[in-house]
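Input structure tokens:
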């Protein structure tokens, strides 16, 4: 056996015979790592836990049992602080911050009081009491359809295992620090404690039964730059350590016992990926300029302050969309003015003199807050959301606007409102900004009085009245994700009608065109920050229509820049002229694909 498990049965042995024949499992790709695909032996971590026996205590044993529990809690806290320190030093503060949630479990008075009550009243051993109570909490959280709460269940189980190991005098559940051979880790889930211990030199990638794009496993994998696929259902119970596998972090596939043909095809793919990555790296510091000298500004979309580092790393020229609502999610109460100011300031200072466009709160639709119950609505995407919510919840809006204004004194900050449907909302929001500028002036707090304010054009009515909005704004940013949803009446989250969600629908092409014309008539700039700007196939069309700036997902900035640098403005204009005359979404899409593949074939070969 290669690895000696600290808890018998936790690790499946590598000596059992492997299955014959190729088997493939499809999951969610959450990290492509450096080259997207890795090959090697798998190491399956078993889900078996130590059996927790129940022991009846005598009356006089109860106080010592409670002391034992307290000692185990202190020991666990020390271990977690140590892991957190190491992770923060080795991987960064954001990854280290994951352990804050673990430490909070150890301070959860409701849980701990219940454990102590169980020991005292039922006179049972600490292991049994702790395990029963914590598992009940974790199972309740895990059953809720919410990625954040499910992640809390994983945290709770991770901490529970540590506390139980300490009570039982066992070492950590598994020691992943001393892997001797490179392997792909397969597990039901990987806890942050496991992941933090991984010896990067020997872990080729991970594949897990559960998880989502926002799960901690995914965050860690992206940070370690190794491929990871999650959501593979029951894969960990179907495989044995020692089988040979190929993990494709681009397409989200795990292939066991790949045939020679599969290996050959993947070998080609890996070679092409490596070549493409080299080409993308070569242009990282170069501008997004077409072959005939037309310059486009290429920025990135971010969700939190910690993402700022990915902006420059991917060769973007600033932030075109900072989705601030993510600061409000996953926490017990909304961040106050000071906390928001610190987050906005951090990004502004890190990227100075590059611009950072901060979007005001876009809550509602699919983004809800646990701490701010919004009444259930029949049509949440058409409901009390974004600017509509903020204009009615002025306490919340005030704190955010003041925080953004204060951050504007520290860097090149711009601000935009989401979901503007017409002039009245714009006037009201601008009125509040004026009022808060006055407040800050009176308080002697600095801000940039010339702060540029823009609006997202993501509701068809805004595109239609773009002329009157453009007179009063410094820029537009077209939110194609919502613009498509609202123009075509296609819920962007509904898989059943996903085929109707067509970015190249003639109506969308025309709405983008009228928005650009209105903006340019008033000499203001237009960006596209919806997902269309991250798709190399659609970027030439946007450029041909006259877009000044594109703001893409950070990891997609390099391929978007790559296609821009291989494009001629004249070709893009021809494509746009064709699209404006066409009556068919599929015909426009086909022309976009044809142009993209002809000018940048290598972008499409590596898939
Ligand atoms: C959009 O609608 O295109 C957009 C960028 O906003 P979000 O995706 O955050 O709704
Ligand atoms: Mg939107």
């Amino acid at each position: 056996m290669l690895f000696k498990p600290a808890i018998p049965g936790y690790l499946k042995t590598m000596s059992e015979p492997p299955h014959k024949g190729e088997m493939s499992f499809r999951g969610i790709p959450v990290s492509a790592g450096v080259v997207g695909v890795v090959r090697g032996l798998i190491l399956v971590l078993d889900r078996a836990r130590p059996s927790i026996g129940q022991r009846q205590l005598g009356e006089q044993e109860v106080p010592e049992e409670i002391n034992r529990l307290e000692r185990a809690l202190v020991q666990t806290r020390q271990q977690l602080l140590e892991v957190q320190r190491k992770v923060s030093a080795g991987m960064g503060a954001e990854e280290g911050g994951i352990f804050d949630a673990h430490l909070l479990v150890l301070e959860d008075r409701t849980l701990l009081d219940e454990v102590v009550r169980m020991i005292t009243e039922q006179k049972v051993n600490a292991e049994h009491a702790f395990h029963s109570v914590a598992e009940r909490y974790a199972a309740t959280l895990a059953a809720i359809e919410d990625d954040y709460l499910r992640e809390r269940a994983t945290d709770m189980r991770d901490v529970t295992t540590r506390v139980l190991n300490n009570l039982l005098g066992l070492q950590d559940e598994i020691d992943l620090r001393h892997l001797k051979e490179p392997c792909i880790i397969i597990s039901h889930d990987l806890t942050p404690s496991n992941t933090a211990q991984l010896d990067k030199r020997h872990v080729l990638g991970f594949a897990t039964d559960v998880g989502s794009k926002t799960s901690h496993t995914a965050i860690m994998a992206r940070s370690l730059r190794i491929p990871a696929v999650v959501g593979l259902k029951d894969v960990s119970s179907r495989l044995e350590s020692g089988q040979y596998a190929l993990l494709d972090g681009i397409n989200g596939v795990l292939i066991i016992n790949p045939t020679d043909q599969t290996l050959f095809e993947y070998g080609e793919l890996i070679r092409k990926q490596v070549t493409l990555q080299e080409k993308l790296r070569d242009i990282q510091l170069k501008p997004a300029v077409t072959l005939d000298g037309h310059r486009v500004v290429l920025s990135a979309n971010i969700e939190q302050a910690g993402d700022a580092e990915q902006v420059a790393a991917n060769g973007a020229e600033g932030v075109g969309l900072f989705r601030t609502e993510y600061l409000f999610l996953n926490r017990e109460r909304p961040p106050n003015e000071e906390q928001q100011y610190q987050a906005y300031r951090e990004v502004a200072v890190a990227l100075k003199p590059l611009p950072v466009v901060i979007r005001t709160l876009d809550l509602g639709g699919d983004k809800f807050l646990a701490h701010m119950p919004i009444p259930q609505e029949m049509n949440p995407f058409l409901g009390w959301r974004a600017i509509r919510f903020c204009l009615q919840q002025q306490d919340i809006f005030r704190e955010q606007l003041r925080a953004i204004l204060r951050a504007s004194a520290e860097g090149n900050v711009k601000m935009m409102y989401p979901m503007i449907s017409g002039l009245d909302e714009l006037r009201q929001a601008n009125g509040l900004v004026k009022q808060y500028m006055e407040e800050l002036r009176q308080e002697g707090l600095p801000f940039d009085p010339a702060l540029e304010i823009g609006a997202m054009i993501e509701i068809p009515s805004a595109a239609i009245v773009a002329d009157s909005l453009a007179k009063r704004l410094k820029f537009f940013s077209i939110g194609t994700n919502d613009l498509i949803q609202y123009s075509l009446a296609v819920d962007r989250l509904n898989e059943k009608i996903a085929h109707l969600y067509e970015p190249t629908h003639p109506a969308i092409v025309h709405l983008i065109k009228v928005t650009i014309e209105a903006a340019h008539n008033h000499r203001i700039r237009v960006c596209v920050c919806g997902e269309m700007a991250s798709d190399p196939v659609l970027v030439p069309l946007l450029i041909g229509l006259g877009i000044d700036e594109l703001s893409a997902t950070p990891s997609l900035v390099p391929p978007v820049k790559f296609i821009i640098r291989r494009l001629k403005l004249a070709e893009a204009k021809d494509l746009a002229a064709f699209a404006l005359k066409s009556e068919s979404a599929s015909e426009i899409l086909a022309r976009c694909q044809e142009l993209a593949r002809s000018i940048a074939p290598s972008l499409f070969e590596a898939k």
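DSSP finds 24 helices and 16 strands in the chain. Residues 104 and 448 are 39 Å apart (CA to CA).
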